[in-house]
Amino acid sequence: MSIRIIDFLSKTHEIPQAEIEILINLVKPITVKKGEFLYVEGKTPKHGAFVLDGILREYYTDAKGVDYIRRFAYEDWWMVDLYELLHEKPALCSVQAIEDSNLLTFTKKDCDILIKKCPIASCVLHEISAAEKYSLAKNEKKKRSLTAQENYESLLANHPGIDKRIPLFHIASYLNIKPESLSRIRKHMNLIKS
Hints:
Blueprint: H1 2-9, H2 17-26, E1 28-32, E2 37-39, E3 48-53, E4 56-61, E5 67-73, E6 77-79, H3 82-86, E7 94-97, E8 101-106, H4 108-117, H5 119-145, H6 148-158, H7 162-165, H8 168-175, H9 179-193
Antiparallel strand pairs: 1-8, 2-7, 3-6, 3-8, 4-5, 4-7
Helix pairs in contact: 4-5, 8-9
């Protein structure tokens, strides 16, 4: 299991064996059941996570109690805000499992050890964090510049079959539209296919 995180980190930099052994000993496998939280908005996150299988959603709730999904984390991807974790800041978003999810987790203490003893792995983790922030900003811009249908088609193209794994009301929230609008889009797309 832990080797998948090493494979992921090694895509951009070769990580020395000594760092690999430290990293493998730091991450802890956990299972987050569907509906359970990795962390909750307003509380200090105790863990970051690498998704082995399953799907997590990161979202915030407005003053009216409406959820807005910022992103999903799928297999072989991260769910962590390093700034919140490392500086023990309250989470701006909640992270919840959409389906039973197996994760490799790491704590602030684990990150502190990683920073001190694993300079290459630490560098990669910071690069991933920066890339994730850029990706979120780019995705937000794209979602605002494309139509809801174009955004939905893009989601399906990038993650085939995801509409079978994520409830449609979550996809609608991610697209920032009402579930009824997503139903109309799906109906229209099915008519075009036929």
